[in-house]
Amino acid sequence: MNKIRGLSPLAAVLMLSGSFLLTGCDNNKSEQAAQQPPAVGVVTLKTEPLKISTELPGRTSAYRVAEVRPQVSGIILKRNFVEGSDVKAGQSLYQIDPATYQAAYDSAKGDLTQAQANARIAQLTVKRYKPLLGTKYISQQDYDTAVATAAQNDAAVQVAKANVETARINL
């Protein structure tokens, strides 16, 4: 009834001997004999002085910083220094196109001339009105208006002079 109970001892011996035969039939004997021992490098040691240094990442900032800022804006025509060279205080660094500043200077001078002419007319009007006020040919209001206009025109002359000076500095 129960025929398969285990392997017979003969079958077990045959299986083991077959596995030994199969593993023993490998042809690696010639390869093992042909392999040479690996080459080994040799280093001769000698004493040398050793410099010990440390490198650390970091940032530095200058003790003194010089900022170069223009006093006026415009188109740069020429650079008057060599990069990296020393410059002296007050030395011109760039030449800027003077066309717009020359025009502003000329316009300011024209405004000054006009303000001076208006002031002169106002002063002459006050001078002319003074005797007329005494004879009552003009009213006190007309005379006061002429005096105030003369003062305004004198102030306009001062403003025009300041504008001419500003335009001259920018030029």
From TrEMBL:
Residues 105-171 form the Multidrug resistance protein MdtA-like alpha-helical hairpin domain. It comes from the Bacteria. It is a lipid-anchor. One of its GO terms (biological process) is bile acid and bile salt transport. Coiled coil: none annotated. One of its GO terms (cellular component) is plasma membrane. Residues 1-24 form the signal peptide. One of its GO terms (molecular function) is transmembrane transporter activity. Keywords: Signal. It is found in: Cell inner membrane. Belongs to the membrane fusion protein (MFP) (TC 8.A.1) family. NCBIfam families: RND_mfp. This is Efflux RND transporter periplasmic adaptor subunit. It comes from Enterobacter agglomerans. The lineage of its organism: Bacteria, Pseudomonadati, Pseudomonadota, Gammaproteobacteria, Enterobacterales.
